[in-house]
Amino acid sequence: MTQTTDFPRDPARPPAPPNLRTALWLAEIGLPALPLRKGKLPFGNCQRCADSACGDRPHMKAAGPCQCPAPCHGWAAATTDQAVLSSPAWARAWQQARAIAYHPGGARLTVVDLDNAEAIAWARHALPATKTVTTTRGEHWIYRGAMHSPNRVRPGVDIKSSMAYARWYGPGTGPITALPDAIRALVVKEEHAVRPVAHAISVPTGTPAGECLHRTPAYLERGIAMAEQTIAGAQEAIHNAVYRVFLAVLAKHGRCGCLTENHVKRLFTAAHSKGESLRHCEAAWANARMSLGM
Which of 82, 127, 129, 231 is deepest in the core (most CB within 10 A)? Predict the structure, then answer.
């Protein structure tokens, strides 16, 4: 993959859907591209990949989770392979595309998404200057270096890098500078703030008979790991996705007393990394317990 240090101007290309022309150019300069549909959302999984039937979940830490020819799996569909982008399997998506996105982490970049004037003012005071792209609501500040991608690290500020996509608004202005420690420190501070929240929620105490349904600790560990991966892979309707995962975990693992506060803390942290607030996590957990009569 070409290491991107700047965004040259898009050259003239032969006739093709406008978004595809831009995607081919982005791939050429090393930015993994994908189409977006209405609402700035990636295209949903095809029928063969629905509900992870293709077995993509174990591979969600790398782009291209399965061999599906269609642009499935949200951010993980992003590619720099021009043959894939222009293939017949992607043609329908490009005809329907309303916008284009790229996977910053795949190009070793981090996008600081500033949603309003207050967030921009904070960035100008707290962060080093770098390449700036004007968006519909604010600005993207782009740094060289990748990290994970938590939302809402402060009011109006999201981080888009690994396992995330950023909408393409244009090449922007200014040179790209290195990812500052201030961004990493901000994320660490936010994560430390969310970890104690599991102490505020209720964990089931087990069945009256005390029968363990898990047989081995590895069974429960696999269940929690799968739940974390499912939350991390959710691309839309995050509130509903988190509730469904909490419900599934409690239904499978919540009646014998093996589920601990540390397990719940892991689930809350996974949900928080997708932008869920503590209030939403607590409400989803409580509603799931209520639904199961716990």
Answer: 231
Q: How many residues in total does the chain contain?
A: 294
Tokens of 55: 């077995």
pLDDT tens per residue across span 265-275? 888 888 887 77
Nearest to 288 by CA among 201, 200, 199: 201
Question: Over the stretch 112-144, which tens digit does the pLDDT of each residue have?
Answer: 999 999 999 999 999 999 999 999 999 999 999
Decide if 284 contacts 160 (C-beta within 8 A). no
| Separation of alpha carbons 100 and 33, rounded Å | 7
**CA torsion angle 169 170 175 179 (round to 10):** 30
Mean per-residue pLDDT for 219-246? 82
C-beta neighbour count of 262 within 10 angstroms? 11
Distance CA 33, CA 49 (A): 20
**Spatial distance between the Cα atoms of 84 and 146, rounded to a whole number of angstroms:** 24
Residue-wise over 178-202: b if at least 16 C-beta within 10 A, else e? ebbeebeebbeebeeebeebbeebe
Q: Among residues 163, 164, 166, which one has the least CA distance to residue 60?
A: 163
Listed in sequence order, the residues at least 6 apart from 255 whose beta carbon sits closer than 8 Å to its beta carbon are 204, 206, 207, 213, 294
Element (H, E) at 131: strand 131-134
Q: What are phi and psi of 37, to 5 degrees?
A: -95, -165
In sequence order, what are the beta bridge partners of 140?
Answer: 113, 133
